[in-house]
Design a protein that fits this description.
Bound molecules: 1,4-dihydronicotinamide adenine dinucleotide
Helix content: 25-40%
Structural class: alpha/beta
Shape: elongated
Strand content: 15-25%
Largest sheet: 7 strands, parallel
Length: 412
């Protein structure tokens, strides 16, 4: 699609080995791509961002401070992952730079691993396997159970929690769930009114809440004490949610019969690094290095989802799925009298009176507007005007002159 300037001059910088599907998507749309395997530290990042129009990162590259300030051409940031706290979202918004992520692309991967762990914990498979690796043949049914008719308690019934719910019921588990928000339970799942109620009823508790103030330390000694004797705990959510010392004590005492933990309060940043945890060496504990959402399918899907959102923003101005600016979904520009209209994208500070100033800018020159959209969220407003090609430059100049303007871009 034609844009304000030739696609070949638009540079996308993709860091941290973002999946090849993203490279293909950008190159397929005519962009220049810099693709590197590792993250970029401040100095290199500032260097790369100076000329970049799009940047794609995963969880390690910190887009904030000096590198972000140096990014004068940057139009949008893509986090090829779920989390966005590695980006200074407010600073980006204040510059009219939307940030996109992939909130659902690895949902299924986490749900599948969770279900597998439910079975593995109930059958004590990892413990049996470790014994075999150590040369021991422990053939016993003791402590090995079917999952059918056991109660799975899901804490956090969002995207992942509700997928786990559906898969678990199909294997014959009874599902109960607790969420602070109102939720529609899937299938025969039942919502309970409190965490305490869920803990008291569940044979397996699986956590699927985000890392927030309200979930920090949500499962500590008191909550573990409130669980059923011999129950199992699964945490594939965030490391801040569970007190691992309390969990370790409960497992060693036999209060709980097993745990599967994928996320830790302190996680190494490197790929192949030494690691210590209070849970090491305890039987029937499955430890994984924050890989619940890391599958080849998820990486491919994330690459498609985020590159799709970035390209849609580049080509149409649509901000659907942005986490820091108002979301506006837009079709491609239409035509007036056979001529393609020009689209003016205007990020501004959200204070009263901007819309009337925009309307003045249009009416002063009698510009022909075929479509107008305005959305605000927090401190940012986003106005999109489709205007007659002949009027676009004049309208843009006037909109640039509005005191609250953050950034204006024209698509033609
Ligand atoms: P989501 O936002 O769709 O669902 C989270 C749910 O938790 C929401 O329904 C929310 O209302 C609920 N919630 C929030 N605070 C709560 C509280 N105090 N008590 C009970 N419920 C509460 O998020 P999604 O996509 O289901 O992901 C859940 C978490 O899984 C993510 O926040 C992330 O931390 C983690 N995750 C871990 C991965 C891994 O590789 N281990 C990969 C992907 C996500």
């Amino acid at each position: 699609m034609q844009t304000s300037f030739p696609k070949g001059k638009i540079e996308a910088v993709l860091l941290e080995g973002v999946h090849q599907n993203a490279v293909d998507a950008f190159e397929g749309d005519g962009l220049r791509v810099h693709h590197q395997k590792g993250a970029a530290e401040d100095a290199q990042l500032a260097d790369l961002l100076r000329s970049a129009h799009m940047v794609g990162i995963r969880s390690k590259t910190q887009v904030r401070g000096a590198p972000l300030e140096s990014a004068e051409r940057l139009l949008a940031i893509g986090c090829f992952c779920i989390g966005t706290n590695q980006v200074d979202l407010d600073a980006a918004a204040a510059r009219g730079i939307p940030v996109f992520n992939a909130p659902f692309s690895n949902t299924r991967s986490v749900a599948e691993l969770t279900i597998a762990e439910v079975v593995m914990l109930q059958r004590r498979v990892f413990e049996r396997s470790s014994q075999m690796h150590a040369g021991r043949w422990v053939k016993s049914a003791s402590g090995s159970r079917e999952v059918r008719s056991k109660t799975l308690g899901i804490v956090g019934y969002g995207h992942i929690g509700s997928q786990v719910s559906v898969l678990a019921e199909s294997m014959g588990l009874r599902v109960i769930a607790f969420d602070t928000a109102a939720k529609l339970p899937m299938g025969n799942a039942r919502l309970v009114g409190s965490l305490a109620e869920l803990l008291a009823e569940s044979d397996i508790v699986s956590l699927h809440v985000p890392a927030t103030d309200s979930t920090r330390g949500m499962i500590g000694a008191a909550q573990i004490a409130a669980m059923k004797p011999g129950a199992c705990l699964i945490n594939n959510a965030r490391g801040s949610v569970v007190d691992l010392d309390a969990l370790s004590a409960a497992l060693r005492e036999g209060k709980l019969s097993g745990a599967a933990i994928d996320v830790f309060p302190r996680e190494p940043s490197g790929r192949d690094t030494d690691f210590e945890t209070a849970l090491a060496g305890i039987g029937n504990v499955i430890l994984t290095p924050h890989v619940a959402g890391s599958t080849e399918e998820a990486q491919a899907a994330i690459a498609e989802e985020v590159s799709g959102k970035l390209l849609k923003f580049l080509n149409t101005g649509a901000t659907g799925g942005a986490v820091n600016v108002p979301e506006v979904d837009l079709p491609e520009q239409g035509t007036i009298g056979g001529e393609r209209v020009h689209r003016i994208l205007h990020f501004h500070r959200n204070v009263p009176g901007v819309l009337s100033q925009i309307n003045n800018a249009v009416s002063e020159i009698g510009a022909n507007v075929s479509s107008q959209t305005l959305r605000t969220a927090g401190e940012i407003g986003y106005a999109v005007l489709d205007v007659n090609a002949g009027d676009a430059e004049d309208v843009r100049r006037r909109m640039d002159g509005i005191g609250e303007t953050i950034r204006t871009r024209v698509l033609w």
